[in-house]
Every structure is written in C-alpha cells, then in structure tokens.
Records
---
Amino acid sequence: MDEEILSFIDNHTEDALRDLIHLVRIPSVAAEGGDSMERAAEAVAKMLEAAGMKATIHPTSGASVVTAELDVDAKRTLLFYNHYDVQPAGDLDMWDSPPFEPEIRDGRIYGRGVADNKGDLVSRIWAVRALTESGLDPPVNVRFVVEGEEEISSPHLEEFVRANRDFVSADGGIWEFGGEGLDGRQEAWLGLKGIVYVQLEVRGLSHDAHSSMSCILPSAAYTLVRALDSLKDPEENILIEGFYDDVRPLTEPEREAIAVIDVHEEEMKHHYGIDQFVLGLSGDALKERYYGSPSCNIRGITTGYQGPGSMTVLPAEASAKVDFRLVESQDPETILRLLRKHLDQHGFQNVKIAWSEGYPAAKTPVDHPFVEAVSRATERAFGHRPVIHPTSAGSGPLYLFRGLVPFVSVGCGDYDSRAHSPNESIKIDNFVRSAKRAVFVMDELAKM
Ligand SMILES: [Zn+2]
C-alpha cells in the first residue's frame, strides 16, 4: 500500500500546489471579513469533496465552519483541525511578492496563509485524496473541522463544538500548526497554554489638569503604575493571592520529554538581542519555566502626553493591557476574580477591569499512545522522530476539545516560515512530506 500512495503523492505535487495557490488567492482575512470568507469556505468544501469526502458548510453567528467526513466503518477515527482564515497582509511594501499572488522561489512557496494554515490544510486533504484516488479506503474514519475565525480567537468555535460533540470526538487529532525547528528536526506540540487578558483603567480626574496641580491632585498614571507593580515582584513571582494554587507541577514523563529538548539558548538570546533570560535562567530551569509556568505581562500602557517636546499635563486617565498565560488546571474566571480581589485589597478599588477575555489551557499527555503514533508517522515521512514539546507557550482554542480528542500539533512550517509576518512561506519538500505523514498517521492510528 505504502509505495502506491507515496508515489501518488509525489506524482501529484503540481496538483496540490495548484490547490494551495487557488486557496491562497482568496484573501480570507478574518479580521476584515467580507465575501472572501464564504468563498474560502466553499473552496475548501470543494477540495474535500474532490478527495472523496462528504463536506458540509455550517453557518455560525460568524464565519462558517466546514466539516467533512469519510466514514469507512473503521474501528478508529482521526480528526483534523484546521482554519481557512488568515492574518492581514500587513505592510505590502515588506513583501517581495504580493501576499495573495503566491510565488514559488528556491523550493519555497510564498503567500499569506501558506504556513498558517492553508499549506497544512491542503497537505492533509491531499493525503486523503491520494488514498481514495488510488482506489483505497483509509484505514481509519477521517474527519475535518475547518473553521474561519482562528486568527481572531475563534469566537464561534465553541458554539459549533457544543452542537457537534459526537462529530469532534475521535481517537486522535492533528492540530493546525507545526513544523521544523531551527536544527531541521520536526517538532510536535501537545498543548497550548490558557490566557486571561484584561484592560485596566484608572480615571483620576474629570479632565486633564495643569501638571503644577499634581501637588494636590491625584495621579491616574501613578495609581496605574503602582497597581501594575503590585502584580509581580522583581523575582518574577506573581503576587496575586491564590494565583498559583491550581498550578500542577510537570509530570515525570513531561520532565523526561523536555530533558532532551535543545531550546538553542544562544541563538534565542542573539535573536532577541539579550544577554540573559529572566532571573539568569538556563538549562532545565529555563525549560521548566517555559513549559510549566504561568506568566504576567504588560502588553501596553497608555496615559498622558507622549508627543514631541514638553506639555505640562497631569493626565486624567491611564490604561494598560495585561495578559496572564495560564498552565493546565488554572481557571481563567478564578484568576480574574483573584485579580479583582488583589486590586481591592491593595487599595486599587479605583483601578477598573474595563474589559477581559480568556480561556483555559489544554494538553495531551506525553505518554498518550497517539503521541507515539504521530512520532512513528513522522519518522516514516521525514526520516527522524520529532522533538516532543509538552505544550506550546502560546494559546488557542484547543481547550474546547478537552476530553473529546487527544490532539498533537504537527505541520509543514519551519523556523523561517514567518507566520503573521511579511514573506510567509513553506518549503515545498515539507509540504509533500506532511501529506505523506498524514497518510502514515492514519496507518499508525489504525494499529494503535
Ligand atoms: Zn495564526
């Protein structure tokens, strides 16, 4: 079976690239909306149908979710989660070729969305197509969930998952992103951190005052800065009472997994232009913090006058955006409540949480058999086993699928793919191998 399928994939690389180019030409920027979203959903549904699957477009209160199924009455079911929306193109002058007119140069294909996430989507559909056009049934039932709002925090995916719990329940799932690390090795990500983000606002005066009045009038800016300072000490400890109560330490299998990861400390320091990481961390301590610790970050502070020259003002208001990345078992609503309590108890009753959003973390256990299945499939397609990351430090809607499907995230990106940036691209070789890996994942899952 292997040989036939693999040569089908090799022989149809041009067709798959044509599909990818077709999809990238549709500027499905979720942040902008418009009729491109529906056109992209329809194009995806057509590709899924062409691969021999039964596709459905589900309207939601936002962009549609496209699903597809190929039920072959197998014991096991594999679910692919992808998205057809993309980030805005950004500054067009920074692109070497137009973002929505894909171009192939030096073995890479360039265009907005090729890495995040249309390349992955097309490679997976291509894998199914390779089987069905060779007259073979996949060894597992295959399902796709392709949403159109991932880049704007998936606001309507929850309503879809709630209404379709049976459909999204599966024995294994392949999440949207992944690829090759700095050292050329494939990487597999088993989870995503949760997040709480808030907008803090202080209004001190009814209107801006002359700065000379600061000797008798309260300062919104100082109040905000002190409130922010109260959240974390210089040793990076988050000082909100109860914040760490639900944090579980990394498991022994997770420790074993991260022990063999090379995080390329020197390259990373060089990349960010720093001499050292926080607290001077390195080695295991640095990795444990990356994979196992929550964080508190100031995203932005706005207050007063920041234009040229001087303007003697005492600003009436000040605001800041703050985010907390959460690890498994921390509950965003609890964290939000603890934050409010902390502010009140420290005399910051006048610091308002004007706006907040968040969701919990989720991850698949390192020792889950599906992780091994994906590792073996990766070895068969790429010639080596992937680096296993117990979680990514980033966040995403993975939590919606908790308890329904064990997800592993592998994909066709690489260290230089520049998702969300100008000149986004993937290596065509990884695109081809990713399609092969998807076939092998089906095979390994069937044997699991
Ligand atoms: Zn993205």
---
Amino acid sequence: MDKETGFSNIFLAPFQQLLDPAYRMSILYLASSLVVALAAYMVIKLRKGEAETVPLLRWLLPLEVLRHPSAQVDFVFYFVNKILLAAIYASVFVTAPLAQKATLALVNSLFGPPGAGFEPHFGFSILATALTILVLDFALWFLHYVFHKVPFLWDYHKVHHSAEVMTPITAARMHPVEEVLDSLTAGACVGVTYGVLQYVLGPAAIQIKIFDINIILAVFFLAAFHLRHSHVWIRYPVWLQHILVCPAQHQIHHSIDRKHWDKNMGFIFAFWDWAAGTLYAPKGKEEITYGLGTDEDGGTWHSLRALYFLPFRQSLERLRTRKKTETRNPSEPAE
Ligand SMILES: [Zn+2]
Ligand SMILES: [Zn+2]
C-alpha cells in the first residue's frame, strides 16, 4: 500500500518511491528479493553442477526478458503511471484517516462515548497490527477476485495480466482505475477497523510500524516480494502455500493455461483463496507462459496507449453491446 505524496513532489514520485521503504517498489525490497534470487541460483548450481548452469548475470537478467516489448513498456508505464497516480494519491490517501474518524464519530453517536476502557496494554498494539493487516489483505483479495469475475472490471485488470514477461516492475503494471478503486476500498476498510479498535480498546490500539508502514506489511515486502513478478521460481511447501502466497503461486496466477485462470488471487495470505476454492498450490516446477491466454496476446498491449485507453474502449463496448461473455474470451473452447 502506498502512502500520501504531496502535490509539489508529484514528478519526483517515481524516484522517491524507489528510495522510501514505505513503498513496495523501494530499492530495499528489490535488494532483499535479489538476495533470495542469488540463494536460489546457488541451489540450482549445486543441483546441476557448474557445467550445466547458466552464468549468473544471464540467469538473473535474461536478455530475452529485458528486450521484450512487454518489459520495455512496463518501465515507461511505471514512470508515467507513478506521476499520474501521485496526483491522485495526494487526494485519495486521506481515505483511511477519514474513514477512521467517521467510524469513531458514528459509534460514539450510536453507543455513546467510550467507557473508561482498558488499561493500555502492548497486546492491543499487536492485535491492532494483526487485525489491520488481515482486513487489508482480505479487502485486496476480494477486490482482486471481483476484478477477475466481473467482466466490466476484468477489462481494466487485463492491463496487469497482459504482461508477457515478468520483471519486478510488472507489479506496477496496473490501470489507474484499478489502483484508485483498490486504494479507496482498502483505505476505507482499514480506517473502519482502526476506528472500531480505538473505540473499543482505547488510544493504545495503534499499529506497530517500521518504515512508516505496518510492520507485517514491511516484513512481507522484505520476504522476496518482488520475485512473484520474475522468472525466479520459489515455491513454498504445499501446506505453507495454503497460508502464505509464494512467488510461484503468483506466477501461476499470470499463466495462460486455462487450469491456472482465476487462481491464487491472494496478496499476503492464501487462505482466502483456499476458502473460496480458488487456491492452486503447485507440487513441483511448472512451465508457465505469461499473458492473457487469448487472441490479444502477441503485441496488442505493448504500448502506453493500449495500457491506458484499451480498457475504456473495451469496457464501454461491453456496456454498449451488453456483451455477456465470460471474463476471458479464449479462441479455444473449454474442454
Ligand atoms: Zn489477477
Ligand atoms: Zn501480478
């Protein structure tokens, strides 16, 4: 989750976010992902032997990925989008504090002012930290699910899935409509939770933060977050894949294979998918081709114009023609 950026710094936003660990794109999280990638390389080298292993730099930064039009538009889209979104975030990121204040005012008027409350206790902070993350993660999972299942919204989420190669910057390949809806809803959910917690437990119920963000979120970003958008396959044991989303599970989410469609929509936790029947926990290495898995793969989405405007055109066309097709429109019928 990103935080507020002042209007005066809008054009610096793409660079500031690289330097500030309050943002998921920060160099710190990229570096921690790099450390895990290096460890993965060592494991591959030990298993295959020196002669069989691709040289480190070529393995880490494959030219066919870096030179791919999908990756190149990702880099440009990142800078344009961050500047554009910084302007929006400057207004949008007041949502959580506003929702918190509104919730406190509402419960105060419904149930009267809070009682004497409890003695401040460190446990309240732990509870607030954990509960806020659970609510945030559920809100993000639910939004992601809705963006897959509602055809009108899928037209916007397609921007993220149109990537045909994955680099960490692909995480930022999001249409502004989706980013804003995500931020507003997640901000509102977190604000309401926080408001209720403060009413019930008192002012001691504050999140534990590091780098100005919730400490669990920071640890999640540090734990190889960026490898989910990369070619580096890191798979947790199957039991753990029911609790935490690993890089391999999100790579599955981007696969063109029909059996992988609409699976693993979780951000931090996998149990929402488990409960909804949308969990896919790979038991071994799977070969994955990234993209939409439709006729639109192969260049349709590799320009800034397409990434910004195609979703508007397709969703309006859908409304105009009342097209009731499924979210993806495969050339091959389902078996
Ligand atoms: Zn998705
Ligand atoms: Zn993704």
---
Amino acid sequence: MKNIDVLVIGAGPSGTVASTYLANQGYNVMVVEKTSFPRYVIGESLLPLSMGHFEEVGLLPYLEEPNFVVKEGALFIKDGKEFRISFDDNFTEGWTWTWQVPRRQFDKALADAAEKKGVNIKYLSTLNSIDFSSEEAVKFEVNTQQGIEEYSCKYVIDSSGYGGVLTRMLEIPVHVSPTSNMATYVKLKDDTRDQWENPTQISFEILETDLWLWVIPFHNSNTSLGFVGNKKYFSDFVKDGADTTAAFNKMFDRSIKFKERFQGRELLWEPTVHTDYMRSSDKFFGDRFVLTGNTTEFLDPVFSSGVAFATESGLSAAKLVARELKGEKIDWQKEYVEHLEYGIDVFRTYVKEWYTGDLQKIFFHVNINSLMKKQLTSVLAGYVWDKSNPFVRKHKTIINTLAQVVDIEKMKA
Ligand SMILES: Cc1cc2nc3c(=O)[nH]c(=O)nc-3n(C[C@H](O)[C@H](O)[C@H](O)COP(=O)(O)OP(=O)(O)OC[C@H]3O[C@@H](n4cnc5c(N)ncnc54)[C@H](O)[C@@H]3O)c2cc1C
C-alpha cells in the first residue's frame, strides 16, 4: 500500500487549483481522473475572480501561452438595445479581465501546469473503494489501466464535478432541482469574423425574458453558440427522432444581432443538449473529506459562475485542509460551508432575477447610474463575497426594488 497526503478526485479547474495549492505547500498530492485529457466539458466563459486563484497557486503563467481570447467585459443585447459592461469598471478591487476558452484546451493546459507544479495526476483512473473507518488513515483503491492499486491518505478532496464520486459512495443526498430550463450548444468555424465590429466580443442576446443566446468567440477561429431557456422552447430538441441541427438552426433564425454573421455556417458537431444541471449536495464536508466545485452546487449558466465557484471552493478547501493537516482545528461549517453559501446565495438571487426579467430591466434602463453599474459589474465579475458592495450585501432586495423604480420611471415618461 502506498501512502500519500491528499487524494483529489477530478482534474477540472476545481481539482487542479486545490491540488496545486497543496503541492505548493509540500504535500504529496495525487489526482485520480476518470478520463484522459483533453476531454469534453462545457463552460467556456470565465470570470475575473478565477484569475486571482490561478495566480495565487502559480498556474497563471502556464495558461498564457495558448493566447486565449481576453474577455474584458460582456455585451448584452435585447430588442435592439445594448448594455455593455467592462471589468475595468469594477467596484471591487481585483482582476479586470479573464479569458473565453475552449475548455478541452484550457483544462488540459491547467492539468499539465498542475503536474509541472508537482501534482501527480493519474488519468483513466477511478476510485474503486474508499474506507474512512480507520482513524489513522483513509484507505482507498484506484482502478487504473494497469489494475487495482491500493493507497492510504490523510484527506480527500472530491472535485469530480457531475461525477459526484463521494456523494455516490457515501450516499450523500444530491438535490437535482426540477429546473424549468435547459441548454443546447454548438461550435462553428468563424474564420471570416474580422469583417464584423468587435469580432471576439463575448455576447448574450436575449430573445425572450427566459430564452437567451451566448456567443463566445475563441482564439482558434471557432465560436461557441448556445441557447439557454425555458424547456417550452426546446420541444424540437427532445422529441422522438429529433433533428437537433435543424432545431438549432430554426432557433438561431430568431437572433437579430448574429443571424447574418453565423447563418448557414457549418456546425462542427450536432448540438448537445443539457438538462437538469441545477444541483446541490446536502453536505459539503465530513470526516477527512471535502467536496468542491460542481460536486457541491451548480446553479445556471447565465452568469458564467461555474468555474469561478469551482476555483473559489477548490482553493478555500485546500487552504483549510492544509491548516487541518498542520494540526489546527477547523470549523468547516463556518469557514467553508457558510463562506461558499454566501456567494451561492448572491448568484442564486441574480439568476432568479434574470429569469423574472427584473435584472434585464435594470441592464437596459437608459439612465443606469454609473456607481450602480460598477457595483453590478463587480457581481458579474464574480466578486460576490465583497460585502462592501450593496449589490452583494442587499442582493435579496436591491434588484427587485430597482426594477420597480425603472417601472415607475417608464410610466412617468
Ligand atoms: C449549459 C451549461 C453551460 C455552462 N457554461 C459555463 C460558463 O460559460 N462558464 C462557467 O464558468 N461555467 C459554465 N458551466 C458550468 C461549468 O461547466 C462547471 O461549473 C465547471 O466545469 C465546474 O468545474 P469542476 O472543476 O467543479 O468540474 P469539472 O470541470 O466537471 O471537472 C470534474 C472532473 O472530474 C472528473 N471525474 C468525473 N467523475 C469522475 C470519477 N468517477 N473519477 C475520477 N474523475 C472523475 C471529470 O472527468 C472531470 O475532469 C456551464 C454548465 C452548463 C450545464
């Protein structure tokens, strides 16, 4: 049996940030990853918040080489009106840009960088069994290409995303919310983009209050197009014998801003359809284990919060694990769960108020005050733990109240 300090399950953004932090601290960390990289995963629009995490653990320099498209803000479009945010205009001090990334390439760069920083990643491997019954060590078996290997460790971080490895093995309930939304997306060649204004601008076009389109151009001349919205718009995608390409093209016909640029372009694959992605685990930690990233919670694609939450939780968990391994008593509920839940709660409000239409009303209101815009921009950059920002601190009421003010102003006009 081989001994290691920490087992991390999953080499996505959450697992690589967590494992690299611990390797930097001198711990012997092994990541067990089911697939071989590059592998498929969705989630291409990052938030500035994550840049600080990559920088803190020393992964950032390795991510610069592919020349990913820099995301300096975002453009929202509805009924011919445009609302542009720039992360330069952040209320919270922090990163003012990030990247928009093909995740296959980005996650491979992240995982390769983690290995260079001393993390041992075992690809094409899964956890066969895990046993927390001994107080001395956690014992586990890994299924590898070469057969079963036995290990012991002091701590386990589960960053397996939708794999939910520990939630399944330890029978921790995971609530899959019966969300009314679903998503579909494709990539296409966008190699004549230079004829368009701001060709690499990430954009979100709202077709209905509860149906929107993302446009995410990449450095490799491909662009990702995706729709997210109420299931009622997606019947053509899910019926028996559905032709998802035809359904996607029909939906895309509704775009006003992007129809001319992308219509008739060959799709690089058949549209993938994602449903029931909103989920939350009952427990975020237990005796010698902690869950991070998507394994704990995922809300909605609308504010691109998935990777930001994955890196925030990965780094927070790793710091607490390091302290505990040094003998400190950690209050996981207070220092981990309550911290994460605060940010999740803020994002949850913004997701809710997006789909009620209240947030959209504020975005497209002509007189949006410049301080308020800065504060909103900060939330959209991922700084949802900055309680000096009223759009964070008063998130439960501020959007709804402002939307009512917009309504009153509209009535007066
Ligand atoms: C429609 C849609 C659109 C989205 N758009 C965005 C976006 O624009 N921006 C954004 O930030 N987020 C987006 N997300 C969310 C994003 O995909 C995730 O939040 C993010 O990838 C989570 O990172 P992670 O490290 O927690 O998990 P993952 O990136 O999923 O990594 C988990 C890793 O664990 C591995 N694994 C799984 N099972 C096992 C196992 N049994 N054993 C070993 N390893 C295992 C997987 O192979 C994977 O490599 C979107 C999600 C959806 C559904």
---
Amino acid sequence: MLSKRLSMILSMVEPCDVLCDVGSDHGYLALAVLQNRLAKDVIATDLRHQPLLHTQQTFANANVFEHISYVLSDGIQQVNTKLNTGVICGMGSDLILKIIKQDLGHFKMMSQIITQANTKLPYLRKEMALLGFEMTQEKIVKDGFFYIAQSYHYKDHMIELNEETLNFGYLLNIQEDLVYEYLLSEKASLEFILDNNPHSTKHLHLLSLLKTRLDERVN
Ligand SMILES: C[S@@+](CC[C@H](N)C(=O)[O-])C[C@H]1O[C@@H](n2cnc3c(N)ncnc32)[C@H](O)[C@@H]1O
C-alpha cells in the first residue's frame, strides 16, 4: 500500500503519455502511476544502481514488465525520450532545483512537474516562480511529519508570488484542520526563531502575517 505521502503525490498526477519518476528509489510511485493508468509509459531514473534495482524488483513483484524503463541517471540527463510529466519527490529543495536547472529546456517542455521537498519550501517556490513555473496546486499530508507537494505548469514568463504565498504556499487557502495544525506548527517555529533572535524583522513580519491568517480561520 502506498504511504500517505506517495498517495498524495499520485493524486496530483495528471493523465499523460510519458511520466518520469526522478530518483524513483523503491519505485512505488512509478508502479502506482502505471497501475492507475495515469501514464502510458513510465521512466524511472535514479543516480544510484541499488535504488534502481529496488525499482526493478518492485515491478517484477507486481508482474509488470512493460511500459516501464529504468535509467541510471543524474536527474534526467540520460533520458532521451520526450517527457510530459516529471515527478521529483522526497529530496531537498537544492537537489530538486539542481535537477531542474541542469535540464531546464527539457523541463520547460513538460506539461506538468510535481515536487515534494523535505527542506526549504519557500526557496523552492521562489526559484520555481523565477524560472517561470507556475504553482497551480499544493497539497499536504501528515504522516509523522508534514509533507507538502506542489504541481507546476510552465509559463513563458517569471511568476510573481506575494510574500504569503512564497512562505506558506496555497495551503493558506485550504480550509482543512490539517492545514490549521501545520500553520500552528509554523507559528511555533517562528516563535522559536524569534526567542533567539527577537529583532529579526523578517520573522516578526512573517509571524504577524501568520497570526492574522490564523485568527481569520478561527473567526
Ligand atoms: C529519499 S529517496 C526518494 C524516493 C522517491 N522519489 C520518493 O519520493 O519516495 C531519494 C532518491 O533520489 C535519488 N537521487 C539522489 N540524487 C539524485 C539525482 N541527482 N538524480 C537522480 N536520482 C537521485 C537517491 O538515490 C534516492 O533513491
């Protein structure tokens, strides 16, 4: 069974011809994409041999031997097929951005990119906007930790994001208890930072923004 995190990512995949699961590791998402007929063909890449073998094993266990290719590759550097969708999940924002920037032309041609970063979300949102990738959806789940994923579509121009969206994404617009819980945890993190650095104007400003939005939710 897919984890809550991978189920969330799967639910964001738009039907396409060729999807690449970049850094597929165990290959659970890649397999679920094929089994749910969200892509006609899937390419699983990984930088390392061992994870790619895990992916192959996952497919073999499920008796799926067609419409899947395994490519040992840094990002999509060794992928020669035209891709419609790129999924880059379970990594840090720096690595996700490195993978996108090193093959920017290829990523710009895709219909959809899905990211799920474990670190530095505001930085990822900002850099993607500067590259011209418009964030069209965000989702959150909690499975021990909070996991947040974004769906992007390339536009031919830089995307403007206001400070709120850069820092808290589209989650602010989602009226779910889980988002409220997430925002409370963000508030606690900001308060912790401010305990140690009480005059940080940036964090004071973010905390005030967040408090306003939290109050709106309660009232
Ligand atoms: C933590 S796992 C995440 C696996 C899966 N994407 C997920 O979300 O569950 C990260 C995987 O990315 C691979 N990886 C790291 N750097 C990579 C790169 N530059 N290109 C392709 N794969 C990479 C690692 O080998 C590892 O298998």
